[in-house]
């Protein structure tokens, strides 16, 4: 049984935002303070990622555990009323999320999902530091230089070139 009246529940659900949520703002402030520069909600990319870091070819999705069906998370439990509706809705959201990330990957983008529960006070620092580490790892991986030996009349020289032509 729902603790709220239908009017209260409607008001609560209507107040849920899709942009500028508290978890998004936490991640954005952290990234900015660490020198990462980004764009928000790029409409040209599938799924309209919450944060787009072009330099890193990375999209960050900051997902609410309930709305995106975070498996095994206590914050993703279905309501006791209208359960079938919510189950279908959340399954559709999960399927759409997967499809959008597959499209982005085919376009050469990396995707990172940060869950709302990972930004709770007890896990926040570890999550954000891990995000920064992952972004730096992606950058280094995508911008690795390969060296090849060039022999010219007994002289040995080195030539460097990027491994990924798209950058």
TrEMBL record:
CDD domains from the UniProt entry: Vsr
Keywords: DNA damage, DNA repair, Endonuclease, Hydrolase, Nuclease
EC number: 3.1.-.-
NCBIfam families per UniProt: vsr (TIGR00632)
Source taxon at top rank: Bacteria
UniProt-recorded Gene Ontology molecular function terms: endonuclease activity; hydrolase activity
Family (UniProt): Belongs to the Vsr family.
SUPFAM superfamilies: Restriction endonuclease-like (SSF52980)
Name of this chain's protein: T/G mismatch-specific endonuclease
Pfam families: Vsr
GO BP term (any one): mismatch repair
């Amino acid at each position: 049984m729902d603790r709220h009246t239908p009017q209260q529940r409607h008001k609560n659900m209507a107040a849920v935002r899709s942009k500028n949520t508290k978890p998004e703002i936490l991640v954005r402030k952290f990234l900015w303070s660490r020198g990462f520069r980004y764009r928000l909600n790029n409409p040209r990319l599938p799924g309209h990622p919450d944060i787009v870091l072009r330099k890193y070819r990375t999209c960050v999705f900051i997902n609410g555990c309930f709305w995106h069906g975070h498996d095994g998370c206590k914050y993703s439990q279905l309501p006791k009323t209208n359960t079938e509706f919510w189950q279908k809705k959340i399954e559709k959201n999960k399927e759409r999320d997967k499809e959008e990330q597959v499209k982005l990957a085919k376009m050469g983008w990396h995707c990172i999902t940060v869950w709302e529960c990972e930004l709770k006070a007890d896990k926040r620092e570890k999550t954000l530091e891990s995000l920064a580490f992952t972004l730096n790892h992606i950058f280094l991986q995508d911008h690795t230089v390969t060296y090849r030996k060039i022999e010219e009349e007994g002289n040995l020289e080195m030539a460097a070139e990027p491994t990924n032509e798209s950058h």
